[in-house]
Design brief:
mainly alpha, 295 residues, 11 helices
Length: 295
């Protein structure tokens, strides 16, 4: 299930499914054949899901992407008739399985989810700015330009158009005919929302993506450092053992030398005179002895 050839095969099946869903929108004589191929693809997805459940068992439910794949396959198995037929529209979600098939896409989506807390704060600040600007715009221009600032709802929509800088000259020109100094309001609003607040949102997303990529590299670095740490510890243990062995050898040699110095020298023989050893029986006889032997 985790081999490269299997992943590439499922990627190809998902791409074929995407092409078939798009081709089916044209209808025509090929539609029945496309429906047959779609059923075959649904069968392949079902077999894949069964294999994943068998191979991973409990670990399957620990990955949120597996939950997404499981939901997509379940929706694909809903019959086209009956009360749940409307859910068949969601079969287009099978194309989104490309995200689970490509690790880089999963990484980007994970970074976006991690950016939600910081991005939510910036978006909340942006909404406050839009709301305050809408109230100011309605109070200043509501009577003269009701088509853009007639009530709060219309003004909020106008503020959104100004933030996107799409056709904003139409709004500003209509207001400037009645209020020549209104350009200050529009310039400040567009600079604050379109150039500052939206760039803050982009900055939060980019930071989250950098952290996502850095986290993966950090985990790899930690694994490498752990291997290197274990190798260093093993070498230190070997060196410690050698040092202990050398110390024990040195201590044993010191003890042996102390024992040799503590043994007293042997006492001189009783037949010796002033330390001169007596003649032994093996020494050559003197001249007197030789003359007696001759006689």
């Amino acid at each position: 299930m985790e081999s490269r050839w299997f992943s590439n095969t499922m990627f190809f099946v998902i791409m074929v499914n995407a092409v078939i869903l798009g081709w089916a929108t044209y209808g025509g004589s090929a539609l029945p054949y496309l429906l047959i191929v779609e059923r075959v693809i649904i069968g392949i997805f079902t077999i894949e899901m069964a294999l994943k459940l068998y191979a991973w068992r409990g670990r399957f439910w620990k990955d949120p992407w597996n939950w997404f794949d499981f939901g997509v396959v379940v929706i694909s198995l809903i019959p086209s008739t009956g009360p749940f037929a409307v859910l068949r529209i969601l079969r287009v979600l099978r194309i989104l399985r490309l995200i689970t098939a490509v690790p880089q896409m999963r990484q980007i989506i994970g970074a976006l989810f991690k950016a939600v807390p910081g991005m939510g704060t910036v978006i909340g600040l942006l909404l406050i700015v839009i709301y305050v600007s809408a109230i100011l715009g309605q109070q200043m221009f509501g009577e003269d330009v009701p088509e853009f600032f007639g009530d709060l709802g219309t003004t909020l929509y106008t503020m959104f158009l100004l933030m996107t800088t799409e056709n904003w000259p139409d709004v500003s020109d209509a207001v400037l005919e009645q209020h020549p100094n209104a350009w200050i309001f529009f310039v400040l609003y567009i600079v604050l929302t379109a150039f500052i607040m939206l760039n803050l949102v982009i900055g939060v997303i980019v930071t989250a993506m950098e952290q996502e990529y850095s986290e993966g590299r950090w985990e790899e670095d930690q694994e490498l450092e752990l291997v290197q740490h274990n190798e260093v510890i093993a070498k230190l243990d070997a060196l410690t053992t050698q040092v202990q062995y050398l110390q024990s050898r040195i201590q044993s040699q010191d003890r042996d030398s102390l024992v040799d110095h503590s043994v007293p020298p042997a006492a001189p023989s009783a037949n010796s005179t002033h330390g001169v050893p007596p003649f032994s029986s093996t020494e050559s006889p003197g001249p007197e002895t030789e003359s007696r032997e001759v006689d």
